[in-house]
UniProtKB/TrEMBL annotation:
<dbReference type="InterPro" id="IPR029063">
    <property type="entry name" value="SAM-dependent_MTases_sf"/>
</dbReference>
<keyword id="KW-0496">Mitochondrion</keyword>
<feature type="region of interest" description="Disordered">
    <location>
        <begin position="1"/>
        <end position="32"/>
    </location>
</feature>
<keyword id="KW-0812">Transmembrane</keyword>
<keyword id="KW-0472">Membrane</keyword>
<dbReference type="GO" id="GO:1904058">
    <property type="term" value="P:positive regulation of sensory perception of pain"/>
</dbReference>
<dbReference type="GO" id="GO:0032259">
    <property type="term" value="P:methylation"/>
</dbReference>
<dbReference type="GO" id="GO:0031966">
    <property type="term" value="C:mitochondrial membrane"/>
</dbReference>
<comment type="similarity">
    <text>Belongs to the ANT/ATPSC lysine N-methyltransferase family.</text>
</comment>
<dbReference type="GO" id="GO:0016279">
    <property type="term" value="F:protein-lysine N-methyltransferase activity"/>
</dbReference>
<keyword id="KW-1133">Transmembrane helix</keyword>
<dbReference type="GO" id="GO:1905706">
    <property type="term" value="P:regulation of mitochondrial ATP synthesis coupled proton transport"/>
</dbReference>
<dbReference type="InterPro" id="IPR026170">
    <property type="entry name" value="FAM173A/B"/>
</dbReference>
<keyword id="KW-0949">S-adenosyl-L-methionine</keyword>
<keyword id="KW-0808">Transferase</keyword>
<protein>
    <recommendedName>
        <fullName>ATP synthase subunit C lysine N-methyltransferase</fullName>
    </recommendedName>
</protein>
<keyword id="KW-0489">Methyltransferase</keyword>
Amino acid sequence: AFNKSLSPSPGAMSQAVAKEIPQEQGEGGSRRSSWGLLVTAGVGGTLVALYAVATPFVTPALRKVCLPFVPATAAQIQNVLKMLENRSGSLVDIGSGDGRIVIAAAKKGFQAVGYELNPWLVWYSRYRAWRDGVHQNTKFYISDLWKVSFSRYTNVVVFGVPQMMPQLEKKLEDELECNARIIACRFPFPCWIPDHTTGEGIDTVWAYDLKRSRGCETKSLEITPETES
């Protein structure tokens, strides 16, 4: 005879299946939710990392005047070095970007310094200087160019934009000594007359000897020694 006690009734089987199905669906939904969170976190983290690394290289840093980072071309670097021939003393690159002008000048024997507001570019510049073996002759500072005095430098390189050149011209004229040479790339200063020009198009470089712009030579001739009465 068939033992009814060992065979569940159809109603009991239906209830058991009904209880199992939601449980399986709940576990599957939970697993899918967990994977979704992991994928979202991974994609979000990757985007944040890419933004942190790439943004400083393609967008303007926070400056008084918008000064975007545009790497110097090989021709521009060579034109700058040409304007530095027969020059000595300290050199500063205002808005040094990724440090390529500073590093090139250091390879020519200058004690070269770069000022850049963007910390990512400064750290990258330091790495490049170390990689190229000139880290002992270079320094890079995270600083706003409008808050720095350039009075101790005799060679100044500027990659500027037209909006900042008039104010920067006045700042440098007030701070620099008469023996300073200022080299402007891409855009000239509005009032000074360049003493030397080389290159063409976006690679044009203008050099200004401050002693002529100020008339220092004329002033020195006008000064006569006092005579004893």
